[in-house]
Write a structure and sequence with these properties.
The structure is a homodimer. A two-stranded antiparallel sheet of chain A has the order 1-2. Chain A is globular. By secondary structure, chain A is mainly alpha-helical. Chains A and B meet through helix 1, helix 2, helix 3, helix 6 and helix 7 of A and helix 1, helix 2, helix 3, helix 6 and helix 7 of B. Chain A binds a DNA duplex (23 and 23 nucleotides) through helix 5. Chains A, B: It comes from Amycolatopsis taiwanensis. Chains A, B: Pfam families: MarR_2.
Chain lengths: ~170, ~170
DNA sequence: TATTGTTATACTCTATAACTATA
DNA sequence: TATAGTTATAGAGTATAACAATA
């Protein structure tokens, strides 16, 4: 044994512990991980992962961006965007259009098939939200939404960026 | 080009998208990932990772459990608990006590040093909660807490299990 | 020389399965 | 033979950095 202080006399207070793991921050982390996990399970039937779904949403919301722009917006390395776009392009969901004026970069766009999948994704997302909010009345859901939106704003979280990506870290 | 449907006529509706990424489920996932990330950054000064902090809390709350019991409770493989306990034991925070009646298993306990660190961890957790709740009044925080606690209960989430562990998946 | 995209590599985290010891 | 713990191995996911093409 090294420097084992081992003073058994000190009683560890379980109430204190319960209070901590009952904090808003803890509940948010717990519920957030749960929601993300369930969403991931749900979109398996579309053969999508959360990062892929997030990328589809970004491209749909702001078509024509370069991969670098998207990488910057997402706070993720460009090499990761490459791999993601590769997979989606092979499946005909996204296309890279050459920019004739600067042939170094691509403009990313959804294909028709991509938009179709995005609509199915939207339906799943609404079902998911319904499942996560189970147990709350409509009024309570709106109340919760107001509080969460204010927290997100206070924390400076960007809209539309899925937590599967790290938001602008550092 | 393979089966590029490419019907430009279909206008992708940004409002629809905004609504989805504005759902309670999305905000929960986003805020939860943010809270978990910030907590991880905060406990770096204690040289702890979130899984380690979670294990310390579990051992403190229910001392004397075997590694298998903890693994089951956390829904994580026993081999992972081994590695976690190894690290904490080397630092003199946790001890494995042989059970004389069944010498196959260990009873896990915090050392005095472990309890001391846990108190520092508690202080950081309270600071963290304060930072995450910034922008809400005391009344709003209680309101939020009530809503989150009901959601967690409705989803069957166990108390005190940090999302760094996957809760009882499958 | 600077920038976009790409590829190669390595690292971290985690799960699965084989192994040891006690029962 | 069954169970607690351990070790070995492999896989997914991700970041870093070197590289190629274009400006």
């Amino acid at each position: 044994m090294i420097s084992g202080v081992n003073d058994e006399a000190v009683t560890s207070p379980p109430q204190q512990l319960a209070r901590e793991s009952d904090s808003n921050a803890f509940l948010l982390a717990q519920l957030g991980a749960h929601a993300a996990q369930r969403f991931a399970e749900r979109i398996v039937k579309l053969d999508l992962t959360p990062p892929q779904a997030g990328l589809l949403r970004i491209v749909a919301a702001q078509p024509g961006q370069s991969q670098q722009m998207i990488a910057g917006q997402l706070g993720t390395p460009a090499s990761r965007v490459v791999a993601l776009v590769d997979g989606l392009q092979e499946r005909g969901l996204v296309e890279r259009r050459r920019n004739p004026e600067d042939r170094r970069n691509y403009a990313l766009h959804l294909t028709g098939k991509g938009r179709q999948l995005l609509r199915r994704l939207g339906r799943l997302a609404r079902q998911h939200d319904e499942a996560i909010c189970a147990g709350l009345t409509e009024g309570e859901r709106e109340q919760l939404h107001g509080l969460l939106a204010r927290l997100a704003a206070a924390q400076g979280l960007p809209a539309r960026v899925h937590p599967g990506y790290r938001a602008i870290a550092d």
